[in-house]
């Protein structure tokens, strides 16, 4: 299942409420992130793919994944964080077959090479089949303070999953010093939010930690799978009252404490494309003193400049003497910043909302 | 007379072939440069104002100066440099009255305070009445290598023009060292291309230096002033063959050599708004770490940024962590550069022309 939520505020004005991050091609691959996610999964899952996304994105998601059956496109009336989205998918699938092993892979991540990813998913599935919630942890390449970490434990001996290990615990985003210790120790992996697990085990932990949320999702799932077309009414009635919480708190961490979580290390590059600095990183210019240009119809002139320009219009963009610049050109909003200030885009969006410029958010 | 020519390439994409510099408000005054020029002159000249501009700018100029009589709006079929434009104005005025003293003040200059300018023009007119071509030279405030200089000579003793002096010679744009010597000596003034002179004296020198150009302009002027409406036909026939040359070479320098040129120093600030660095200079932000914003409908968010943003659209522009930046946002083209690179805009325009992007030039 693919949870397709989150606006990607730090990618404004490209990413916005009605055109979130996962609907964009941020890697110059010619493919949107959600389509890339689908294509990465399809060789493993065939047509058994479910997407959970906001109601407003229904048409856009179907344009990206026309293969999706209506029954496998779950539409949230409003954002409720990951526990509700993933829990609902688990509840629906459990009604189809309680034995199902589900993988959850967010719609807005960039992964390469695909082969290494698929191998990790296969190991995770084999491990999940022994009754584990299995995260795929990323081998850290630098001491990031922007990700949570997974402390790995003892090696598990599972057929088809030679690298699977027990998870000792999840840890929150660390400070710089702690992050460095984590990386040096070799005992920690980045928590990329990817996991494979029996739906029954997910639901069991959800029921224990968040019984009301579990009950609500179960009722919605029953209506979803019923033939009597009451799903819309039930969703409209129950969804607004559901608790907003992350799957990490509602399932993963309590499950780890109970010894039910394993990890398979992923030796692939992984990026959640959090800001324009990530886009510059993922789309390196060929030469040092050069601009990275994204956009099918880009008309860019660059002189003595470096950085990234994202063209969502047909306008000519001329860049002269600007280093590490980030220019994002859209019909109704323009962003000019630098890769060093990419994180500050979030504050800009908040300030624009306060100023009453929500029409461009 | 107001010569209104020149695209202002370094001010692209604001200034362009069909919307040149003089049709913009570049000072945040609420007034276009050409209207500002007219209003600066009107208290001295009343309605006796002539504009020479390109045919394509006819309607735009009339919108800016509705006071203009059709007979005083001379339209060039193509750009022919300043000798043809100013020479034609002189030839037309000479047919109206050979005694006329004409002042020539380009449409795209910024001058303050107006009182000091008008006082200099009055002195220049009094000096011109004694049979001189009188330039108004600007007292240099720094050793500019971007302007030509005027070497002043002996003081003239003229009623109503206490500061008038003979001009020894004009000198081309100097190197840095020479410019510094000029400024230190106190003997040099910037050549701002402003002058006041009897039309007969202008034409006399033009006839000597460029007899063919003089003959062509005389014939056009005759047709212009005739009642038989042949002006258009004569203009179309003669104009294309006229020599392209600057008034400096065709009149001012030979006249100086002949001892016919005087100078009145102008103790006012003067800027020809040559590039976006000039716009930043002319529109200082109130606080150091702040953006200068030009544009009636600007919607700008600025954080940790300085420089100038010119908004020719209603788009939201967000600037984060960019220093001394220049952003010019128009419907079909966007420029991002720094005040230090403002001169390089000219090369960008040339490169875009070569690339075939002339639609935005």
UniProtKB/TrEMBL annotation, chains A, B:
InterPro entries named in the record: GMPP_N (IPR049577), ManC/GMP-like_b-helix (IPR054566), Mannose-6P_isomerase_type2 (IPR051161), NTP_transferase_dom (IPR005835), Nucleotide-diphossugar_trans (IPR029044)
Annotated Nucleotidyl transferase domain residues: 2-285
Domain MannoseP isomerase/GMP-like beta-helix: start-end pairs: 305-352
Annotated source species: Nesterenkonia aerolata
Keywords, sorted A to Z: Nucleotidyltransferase, Transferase
The name this protein goes by in its record: Mannose-1-phosphate guanylyltransferase
Top-rank lineage group of the source organism: Bacteria
PANTHER family: MANNOSE-1-PHOSPHATE GUANYLYLTRANSFERASE
């Amino acid at each position: 299942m693919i949870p397709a939520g989150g606006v990607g505020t730090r990618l404004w004005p490209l990413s916005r409420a009605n055109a979130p991050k996962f609907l964009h091609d941020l890697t110059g691959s010619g493919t949107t992130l959600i389509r890339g996610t689908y294509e990465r999964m399809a060789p493993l899952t065939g047509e058994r793919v479910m997407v959970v996304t906001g109601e407003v994105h229904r048409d856009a998601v179907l344009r990206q994944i026309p293969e999706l059956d209506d029954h496998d496109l779950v539409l949230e009336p409003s954002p409720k964080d990951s526990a509700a989205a993933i829990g609902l998918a688990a509840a629906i699938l459990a009604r189809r077959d309680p034995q199902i092993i589900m993988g959850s892979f967010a719609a807005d991540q960039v992964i390469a090479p695909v082969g290494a990813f698929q191998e990790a998913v296969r190991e995770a599935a084999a491990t999940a089949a022994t009754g584990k919630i299995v995260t795929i942890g990323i081998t850290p390449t630098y001491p990031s303070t922007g990700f949570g970490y997974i402390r790995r434990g003892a090696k598990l001996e599972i057929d088809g999953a030679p690298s699977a290990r027990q998870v000792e615990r999840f840890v929150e985003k660390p400070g710089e010093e702690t992050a460095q210790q984590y990386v040096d120790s070799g005992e920690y992996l980045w928590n990329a939010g990817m996991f494979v697990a029996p739906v029954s085990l997910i639901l069991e932990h959800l029921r224990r930690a968040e019984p009301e949320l579990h009950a609500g999702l179960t009722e919605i799932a029953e209506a979803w799978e019923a033939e009597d077309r009451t799903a819309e009414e039930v969703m409209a009635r129950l969804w607004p009252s559901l608790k907003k919480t992350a799957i990490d708190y509602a399932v993963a961490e309590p499950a780890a404490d109970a010894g039910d979580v394993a990890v398979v290390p992923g030796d692939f590059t992984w990026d959640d494309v959090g800001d324009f600095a990530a886009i510059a990183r993922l789309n390196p210019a060929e030469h040092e003193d050069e601009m990275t240009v994204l956009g099918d119809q880009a008309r860019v002139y660059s002189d003595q400049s470096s950085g990234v320009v994202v063209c969502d219009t047909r306008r000519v963009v001329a860049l002269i003497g600007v280093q590490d610049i980030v220019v994002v050109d859209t019909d109704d909003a323009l962003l000019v910043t630098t890769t060093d200030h990419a994180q500050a885009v979030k504050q800009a969006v908040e300030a624009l909302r306060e100023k009453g410029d929500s029409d461009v958010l």
